[in-house]
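Can't paste images in this forum, so I'm doing it all in text. The chain is below; anyone willing to post the predicted structure tokens underneath?
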Amino acid sequence: MATKTTTSVGLRERKKQKTRTAIREAARRLAAAHGWEAVTIERIAAEADVSPSTVVRYFPVREDIVLTAEDDDRLEALLRARPADEEPLESLRAVLVEAVGSALVAAPDDIRLRARLMAGAPAVRARLADTTAETGRRLARALADRTGRAPDDLELRVFTAAVLGALREATLHWAEHGLAEDLTVLLHRAVDTLRAGPVRPARP
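Text version of the structure:
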């Protein structure tokens, strides 16, 4: 039987998550309607029916409202679950394709909006670089355990940064071309390019 304290903690956590979700949804609605530059903390607060200080408390960096997916734990867990003898590039490909595919199924409008903001809002794209660096450190740590290298090994940092950079560029390409292509196909192309380099197009 749950204690009163346990129940209270559970209620507080659910309330926090509800508030966080309301803020995110409000920011996304405003961004979709007016563009990111028009999405101020005050407008987000009014749309979400919370105070501006609440918005800042939950998201000290405004761009994190539309960027933070809180899935680094899941990505790291997926990577650690890949076969130990699998090539690292193929492990990361599988993990990122699975994550992108799941996100497109679960929240396609959010993923499309995020891609458009990445392409059109410099502040969002700059913040993405910071959050991607943290994701890279998490993935490098998982690969370090598999390869016997140190987590801050230069080669691991370069490798994970390159693969995440491929995901970023595939997403930007997707947004810049009207979101018309299959993002997972673009990601496969980007990873293939890391392996083989750009191939000359066939001559007519």
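The radius of gyration is 19 Å. The chain has a mean pLDDT of 90.
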